[in-house]
Each structure stands twice: as structure tokens, then as C-alpha cells.
Amino acid sequence: MITVENVPNLDVLIDEASTRFVDTVTEILASDTGGVHGDGVARVVFTGGGAGIKLLSRLVRAKNLDWSRIHVFFGDERNVPVYDPDSNEGQARYALLNHVNIPEANIHGYRPGNLPLDDTAANYSNAIQQHAPRGFDLHLLGMGPDGHINSLFPSSAALSEEEKLVVGVTDSPKPPAERITLTLPAVARAKEVWLLVSGSEKAEAISHLVDGEPSDEWPVTRVPALAETTLFVTEDAFSPAQ
């Protein structure tokens, strides 16, 4: 199932998504039995990309969120150190996590280091099983013009994964080639998925998504069948009148 929130521009998209994020997480934290784990702790997957990082930057203003009861995961990561400008974790720390009172133990980064990608993927899967065994409350997703989500690219072998939650990627068409990514089975463990999409270059991918025909040629089209999905999309990327 997909719900479309069509907005005029990226600024409005960030306004609406940030307000919804605060409301959603606050509701989980308001009860000792809130969230998918029934423990009053929110488990959220962050995304990189322009809209994703802008959303994180906006959340710095949310002064009433109790970050000690929020666990953060990442949809994917490039095989680079966390201080590298290409690191999703690094960008998230710079935009948000360094500015809020979140315990380091609540930030679950991939940290590939010198390990083989498969070992890093296995370690991250173990972290998910330890800290989010029942899944995620919210998975934020960006999307590329080719319809890729996380580091799941069109017609890639990773799209065929049916059991593993995390896999290594060695042939990303976008540099760097080596990455680690959550899989579609991991996306399916989210109660909600929010797609944050802006830009006319993404209109073709969005048209395939809204048409509702799942296809490995457009990975984003696989999402609505996996989890309750909300598409926050600007008018240059999609308009019902198109």
C-alpha cells in the first residue's frame, strides 16, 4: 500500500516529513509499550541523499525528542571510513547526531574498516537481531533517478536476496563500487517506510512506482508490497495531473 503526499517543493517536503517524524516517534515514546517491540523505544533507519540529510538537519530543532530511547540504523553505507565525506553515518552525525543527546550505543553504524564486506554485512545483521529483532518502526528511504533504494540498484543480484537482512555490494554503478546495504527482507521488517523524493530527474521512476507494477528494473516499485509506504514527493517529480 502506498500513500502519496504531494508537496510543492523540497522545503515543504522537509517541513511535513519532520513534523510527521516528531509526531510518530513521540507517540512511540509516550508509552512504555509503544513501538513494534512494545518497549517504548523507537527504532529508525536513516537514509542519505539530499532530502534525507536535510530532514536530519531539520530534526535538530526537535528539542523534545528523548534520543536516549531512539535507536538509529542506516539503510546502506559506502565502504569508506565514517569521517569520509561519502559516509552516510558521517553525514548523519554531522547533520543531526552530533547535536542531540543520543547515547553512542544507540547509533548502529556499519563501520566496515578492513573487514571483508560479507563479514561486515553479517556483523550488521547480528546488530539488527540484537537491537531490533522485531524490525523497525520507521525506515526512511531516498531514491535515485534509476529508482534505486539503499544500495539496491536496478537488476542487481541483491534484489533477489530472500533471507539475509544485509549484504555486501561490490558492483555499485555509482562510486564507490563497494557498499553494504539492507535488503528487501530488511525493508519488509519496517512497520512504515517513508520515501523522500524531490527533483524532475526522478519523475520516470516515480511514475513506475505509482503505476504499481513491481519490477527489478525499478527497485523502488518493490517497496509498497513489503511495508506501509508513504511517498513524500515534490511536484517536479510527480503531479497527479501528469
Give an account of the 3D structure.
This protein has 242 residues and is α/β, with parallel strands linked by helices. The protein has a single domain, classed as Rossmann fold (3-Layer(aba) Sandwich), CATH 3.40.50. It has six helices and nine strands; from the N terminus they run βαβαββααβββαβαβ. Helix 1 (10-29) packs across helix 2 (49-59) and helix 2 (49-59) runs parallel beside helix 3 (88-95). The mean pLDDT is 96.
Topology:
Blueprint: E1 2-7, H1 10-29, E2 42-46, H2 49-59, E3 70-74, E4 76-78, H3 88-95, H4 117-131, E5 136-141, E6 166-169, E7 179-182, H5 184-187, E8 190-197, H6 203-211, E9 228-234
Parallel strand pairs: 1-9, 2-3, 2-5, 5-8, 8-9
Antiparallel strand pairs: 4-7, 6-7
GO molecular function, one term: 6-phosphogluconolactonase activity
Organism: Corynebacterium appendicis CIP 107643
Function: Hydrolysis of 6-phosphogluconolactone to 6-phosphogluconate.
List keywords for this structure.
242 residues; alpha/beta; six-stranded parallel β-sheet; three-stranded antiparallel β-sheet; 6 helices; 9 strands; 28% helix
Question: What's this model, at a glance?
Answer:
By secondary structure, the protein is of the alpha/beta class. It has six helices and nine strands; from the N terminus they run βαβαββααβββαβαβ.
